[in-house]
Amino acid sequence: MFIALLSLTLALWLLILYHHIIYPLILLRVCKAAPKSVIKKSTGTFNTLDVLPSISLLVPAYNEADYIADKIRNLASLDYPSDKLSILIVCDGCTDNTVQIAQQCMTEPENRHLNISVLKLAKNIGKTAILNRFIPQLPGEIVALTDTSALLSMDALLIAAKCFWQTDVDIVAASYQLLAPGCAGESLYWQYQSRIKQAEANTGNPIGMHGALYFFRAKNFISLPTDTINDDFILPMLMVEKGKTAIYCSTIVALELEQTDSVMDHKRRMRIAAGNIQQLIYCSGLLRPIFKGTAVNFFSGKVLRALMPLILLAQMCLCLILALLSPVFLSLALLQLSAILLAWLSIKLQRVPIPILCKLLFYLINGYRYGLLGSWHYLRAAKSGHWH
User: Rounded to two decimals, what is the model's pTM?
Assistant: First the structure.
């Protein structure tokens, strides 16, 4: 019995080490050794701008009064021909003055050249419903989806257009940066994620996009299931499953203005965790061997991340059982429980100075705690047929 439990525990530890350490190291090593042509492909570097595609930029907005004016002014500053750019802001049943601010901002002299429309919906229908309803109506060859609270680099559209000059490029992901991270752990985590996403792109396809900004050819749009949670993952990956090619372009930058507090971070990470479980169902076709590097990246990065809260919980329970038979496992179990407690306290005592590596560790631990709650919430909601 002891041998069986020990073997199962070691197997779970191997999965944990593989997901967090072995896989990223292999990925970065393979990326470094990848052919230069593959890496260059994600830069979107071209020598001519004779012909530019028309771009339709869709901005779903719900109660974004704090950011909508900055967003419109930012879009007005983008370096792209105004006759090639159309902008649609869909105010999704806003209960604040987002619509009024947007309409007033449109009349400012520096914004009047924009081909922009603000559509007010009387009832909140959700982002997925907005995408399904309005993307097929957009006139542009390229669709750009962006969040209201994200500012775009001035040359973002030009670089994206250059990327689409390559006929085999169907989706372009932008890099994501935080103006004011909620904590040091969050900042380090997103820096790490950016490096991983670039490496995944160079070995197959980027696994998911940042919802702050990404582009795709309008003709490739796939209507999303109505209960979709993480649309910025499922939409592009369904396109990839249909044989389309995605690239990650680090020179296109979306800068997130909104700073998350502990409550917002809790809710956001629970939603992402629920979406991660949903992704395993909707995008399971990406695990087929035909997708090669993309399949490996999807399993190693997303599948294991979605299951990691359960894996961590299972190995801790096994450590507690084995603690009855071995003082070594008793020490390991107590160490893990202490780390969970300290991670929880780090949220309550944010002003207490903590070493930077501990902040990153606590951020990950709290993330998996939220992930466990989010996964349970999704599975419970799925049974009842409702998800909020």
Answer: 0.84
